[in-house]
Design brief:
The chain is an all-alpha fold. It folds into two domains: 259 residues, MetI-like fold, CATH 1.10.3720; 273 residues, MetI-like (MetI-like fold). The protein has 23 helices and four strands. The strands form two sheets. The protein has a two-stranded antiparallel ribbon with strand order 1-2. It has a two-stranded antiparallel ribbon with strand order 3-4. α1 crosses α12 and α20 runs antiparallel to α23. It is globular and about 80 Å long. The two termini are 44 Å apart.
């Protein structure tokens, strides 16, 4: 009886300890933001900051601009992702393996790198712009504003929809599709009446992620928005601006963002649950060789979309070897850009990125395994509360998380601002929900009878967990950790709020160099980040045994 209580207490204490950590780092910062948003300078409680926002067009128009950009970008991403997934799953495309890698790489790179690359190509002095102006004798003003933001976001976000839909199509029974084809339905009719309804939950889930990511991103509109100011740019300016900053007003803006993302999250959950279909892939969809016009159109469409999506990555790699004079390229090949970023005072930026990312991933893996095990195997009130809290970071944008951390941990006893620890914790929290979800799915596939058999043979519950359960989970967890690592090293929205000169990371350095018009250094930093992502992705394929990524 005593041993049983010890075992029970061990898991309860562990669940309680993790719950306390979540309360401190996940619940407390947003709660403090909410409090500051209604706290006036004289200590009274008021909603004046919210009234200020909604009463002045200068402020609320930024929210309207964000919705316009986000809705259009999400629609374009959803349509492109759906078509790309269907074509690559149903038609044999030459070089599909390499195309898939390029699609994923275009998603994993930070959105603002795409924005900076598009400025290099289609800005007022861009490479393509100069050619078009010379050939057609025009004076194009570049892609700045609404159209440029939508282009950058759409081409960087559609791969996420593609991965979700591709995974859904892999698990779909193709018999329905074939039956509709035998009855005379066209490809468009089959997609509209069969494919879309069956993949709708995945389409909604991926579209929500795209919506939330685009809505909360400030790097892209900051670089190419010019006069088209969005809500995240306003939030960043109010909190980090050089003049007229207002912490309480910035807190009110954070509350507005959290409210919007919270409504969207529950709306997607509600719609997704109502439209969910359950079916087994008795005959999975397989890519078939087609001929004639359909084959030509399929190849042309896929190659065109992938080329445009991968163009920013190719641009930064090529331009990293070009000599620059300010924001202009001389056309001469040089290694000067790499010499600049590898100077002793700059190389710490690269080492910081790897060190912070690996530290965060280690925390993510350990906590992900423990939380998934507790919520699946040790169900209780504590673990149920923990399971609910793990979804909080899912709906908190990175910039809001960074601002809330500075509010919460800027004084003793938890004085973390300006340290590497606060960035590592922020990175960990940003990826935690996804890792917990994947770990929970993995542990759900492990039969509990395996653990019971080990215990019946004399093993303790702790040893069974460490020597049997964890090793059985590890292959899937490591694959997920690599993908989390790639997204962590590309994180900007929270890092740009929390960094100091000693804790600068690659994404922050790229952003700073672009703002300073040091395009050569920015390209070199971007090339290193892109190369790291590619190598990490190849490692993922090696460990997972997959040749593509689907969610």
């Amino acid at each position: 009886m005593t041993d049983s209580r010890k075992k029970l207490n061990m898991w309860l204490v562990l669940a309680f300890a993790i719950l306390v950590l979540f309360l401190i780092f996940v619940v407390y910062p947003p709660a403090l933001v909410l409090y500051k948003s209604v706290l006036m300078e004289d200590g009274t409680i008021s909603f004046d900051y919210f009234v200020k926002f909604f009463s002045k067009k200068y402020y609320w128009s930024t929210l309207l601009n964000s919705f316009k950009v986000t809705i259009v970008s999400t629609l374009v991403s959803a349509i492109l992702g759906l078509i790309m997934a269907f074509v690559l799953r149903s038609v044999k495309i030459r070089g599909s393996g390499m195309l898939n890698i390029l699609i994923v790489i275009s998603y994993l790179s930070p959105p603002f790198i795409g924005a900076y690359a598009w400025v290099t190509l289609l800005g007022r002095n861009g490479f393509i712009t100069r050619i078009l102006n010379a050939v057609f004798n025009t004076h194009l003003n570049g892609i700045y504003g609404f159209s440029g933001i939508v282009l950058a976001f759409s081409m960087q976000s559609f791969p996420l929809v593609y991965m979700y839909i591709s995974g859904a199509l892999k698990n779909m029974d193709n018999s329905l599709n074939e039956a509709a084809e035998s009855l005379g339905c066209t490809v468009f009719q089959r997609v509209r009446k069969i494919i879309v309804p069956l993949v709708m939950p995945s389409l909604l889930a991926s579209s929500l992620l795209v919506f939330m990511r685009v809505f909360s991103d400030f790097g892209t509109p900051m670089l190419i928005g010019e006069g088209y100011k969005t809500f995240p740019v306003l939030l960043y300016s109010e909190f980090m601006g050089e003049v007229n900053t207002d912490d309480h007003y910035a807190a009110a803006l954070c509350v507005i963002v959290i409210t919007i993302t919270l409504v969207l999250f529950f709306l997607q959950k509600y719609i997704g649950n109502r439209l969910t279909y359950s079916m087994s892939a008795l005959k999975p969809m397989e890519a078939k060789k087609v001929t004639g016009l359909r084959n030509i159109l399929a190849h042309a469409f896929v190659y065109l979309v992938v080329t445009v999506a991968a163009l920013p990555q190719l641009t930064v790699i090529v331009t990293s070897f070009l000599q620059t004079r300010g924001a202009s390229y001389t056309g001469k090949i040089t290694l000067e850009n790499y010499r600049n970023i590898l100077m002793p005072k700059n190389v710490s930026t690269i080492t910081n990125t790897y060190l912070f990312g690996l530290s965060a991933i280690l925390l993510v893996v350990v906590l992900g395994i423990l939380i998934s095990y507790l919520t699946v195997r040790k169900k209780s009130f504590l673990t149920a509360a923990l399971d609910t809290l793990t979804m909080f970071p899912y709906i908190i944008p990175g910039s809001v998380l960074g601002i809330s951390f500075l509010y919460a941990f800027n004084k003793k006893p938890l004085l973390l601002s300006g340290t590497a620890i606060i960035i590592i914790i922020a990175l960990c929290i940003r990826r935690m929900p996804y890792t917990i979800r994947s770990s929970t799915a993995i542990i759900g596939q492990i039969s509990q009878s395996v653990e019971e058999a080990a215990i019946s043979l004399g093993s303790t519950e702790r040893k069974t967990f460490l020597r049997i359960t964890v090793p059985m989970m590890m292959s899937g967890v490591l694959s997920g950790a690599i993908m989390s690592w790639i997204t962590l090293i590309s994180e900007l929205s929270s890092s740009i709020i929390l960094y100091t000169s000693k804790t600068q990371t690659l994404t922050v350095a790229i952003y700073v160099e672009v703002i300073r018009s040091n395009f050569g250094n920015a390209a070199a930093y971007s090339a290193i980040l892109t190369l790291t992502s590619i190598l990490s992705l190849l490692l993922f394929f090696k460990l997972s045994g997959k040749n593509d990524i689907s969610v």
